[in-house]
Amino acid sequence: MIRKPIVSGQFYRDNKNGLLKQINDAFLDLRGPRELPYGPRQGQIKGIISPHAGYAFSGPCAAYSFKAIAGSDFPDLYIILGPSHMGFHKSCFSEDDWETPLGLARTDDKFGRILEEHNIEIIPMPHKEEHSIEVQIPFLQFASSDNEKKLRFIPIMISETDYEETAKDLIKSIKEYEKLGKKIVVIASSDFTHLGVNYGFMPFSKNIKENMYKLDQGAIDRILKLDSKGFMDYCEKTNAKICGKYALYVLIEIMKSKKASAELLQYYTSADLLGDYTNAVGYASILFK
Predict the structure, then answer these.
(1) What's the Cα-to-Cα distance from 260 to each of 60, 160, 251, 275, rounded to whole Å?
(2) Of 92, 141, 146, which Cα lies nearest the Cα of 116?
(3) 248 CB contacts (<8 Å, ≥6 apart)?
(4) Domains recognised in the chain with CATH numbers
(5) DSSP 8-state secondary structure symbol assigned to residue 205
(6) Please, what is the angle between helix 245-257 and helix 163-178, to 10°?
(7) DSSP code string of 226-249
(8) What span, in angstroms and rounded, lies between the C-alpha atoms of 36 and 214?
(9) Of 115, 122, 211, 216, whose CA is between 20 and 30 Å from 154?
């Protein structure tokens, strides 16, 4: 089966040439890496965090993470972790191939079998209406243009009901896959604090920009330390509305199992672009090696 795009023409342009230009522009943007991701691949990375808003807002931030992907060794599989904005009650994956204006991104049924053996179910339905994973795929296709036919991925939706068990099961699945000599890179799709009336979160009325940066930095600091419990405790204590926090927990646990190190590549907010903090969303690009 083929999963059709649901936010093309909304979050990103719905034709190939327009989308390629949009991604190019994100890389060259003043808030982006300011260069295109061309050159030899050197060294391995283990994972990234990338935002999932419309490209006009979060694209330059995402470009940092995908520049790292484009410049590192090409893996056998990308795992893309994302939240369910619809609140689906169970973590699950899909084996549908995903269509974008850049072509067809294919899934890996071999890894799918391993996931099922480790209690992660294949349920394609909730993936069909979820944008958090979809918006990562055109960037991944762009960054993999030198290995277009080899590109394989698995989308996994992480639910708040079973994220801790899913992290354990996914780590077991990854270790089994890697015993076959395979290499994996994990992508977690998450925006950071959603602030303002539109999001029902207004924790401060003064120095809004400074306080929002501080709030997100507290979460980022715990991610950089690979402190999954501290990260979740911080989210609960501050009520920070981080979209994708359960996917981030799973990513942190996987990166801990791999003894990774983390680096913040970029952070800004939608309000930095609009000049209005009435409503704002934070975006972060984080690399794991």
Answers:
(1) 25, 24, 11, 36
(2) 92
(3) 49, 188, 190, 223, 231, 242
(4) 2-288 (3.40.830.10)
(5) S
(6) 40
(7) T-HHHHHHHHHHHT--BTTHHHHH
(8) 30
(9) 216
CB distance 166 to 250 below 8 Å:
yes
Q: Which residues contact residue 54 at a Cβ distance below 8 angstroms, ignoring those fewer than 6 apart?
A: 10, 11, 12
The two counts, helices (H) then strands (E), for the chain are 10, 12
**Beta-sheet strands, E only, within the chain:** 2-3, 47-50, 77-83, 92-93, 97-100, 103-107, 121-122, 152-158, 184-189, 194-196, 262-269, 279-288
d(CA 154, CA 119): 15
With tokens 């990308």, the residue in question is: 78
Quick check: helix, strand or coil at residue 167? helix
d(C-alpha 279, C-alpha 202), whole Å: 9
What are the tokens at 182?
A: 């395979």
- Per this entry, what is the length of the chain? 289
Question: 27 and 37 in contact (C-beta within 8 Å)?
Answer: yes
Q: Cα angle vertex 36, ends 260, 3, to 5°? A: 75
pTM here?
0.97
Residue 42 corresponds to which tokens in the numbers above? Answer: 């050197």
